Description:
The protein is an alpha/beta fold. The protein has helices at about 20-30, 45-55, 70-85, 110-135, 150, 155-175, 195-200, 205-210, 220-230, 250-255; strands spanning about 10-15, 35-40, 60-65, 90, 140-145, 180-190, 245. Helix 4 (about 110-135) links the parallel strand 4 and strand 5.
Amino acid sequence: MDLGIKDKVAIVTGLANPQGIGRAIAVALAMEGCDIACLDQDPEGVNSAAAQIRDLGRRSIAVTVDQSDYEQVKKAVDSVEQQFGRIDILVNNAALLGNVSLIKNMSVANWNKEMSVNLSGPFYFVKEVFPKMMSRGWGRILNISSIAGIGGSFGQVGYSSTKSGLIGLTRTTALEGAKYGVTSNMLMLGLINSAALRANIREDMIESIVRDNALRRLGTVQEVGDMAAFLLSDRASFVTGAEIIMDGGHTLLVG
């Protein structure tokens, strides 16, 4: 199926890890003919990602950025625009995951860090790309979230709160962009067999959650990439402000 996004320019954040969700989304978009700006705070990782995209026959650049810093985000977006001429697609994927702490033990410093990376960072990118998308009359924004944003997550108050916050960002961007041809959607993921999952969640916990999953398996990063490419395409032009739950039926069973 032709998704109608050949030669579009996409920013994808958080794609340094070859086994990560961000990398899979970037590859899926490149396979549909997009050029990719690879953004992450890991220089080696973004260079690897950009090389992989170029191997697929598409243009790609690597930009190192700490998205908790607005000035760095602004500079990064300006760099992408200078090299590609425009930005058509934004995928806000980068996030901190591993800060596990009960509320009573959560430090203010760690709370602020999660807020700045997981919520302020996506806002900074939207703020920078949104006006130009509107002026051109076409744009696609996708925020990668989690079912923790609707059900909470024991011991992850910062992560859950930021993923809930992305709901407001997604919906408001959808409302403000609608008449300009700019859509804004969210993927709310369950357990995906990614590098981040294996690094941050114990195997026994994964097995327990999978038992509460209607499909009785983990999702794959390739499945997330395919869904993201669709939502970012012309084929999904009537979808905006949506929170797509992609969790194998976990929320059906546990609420």
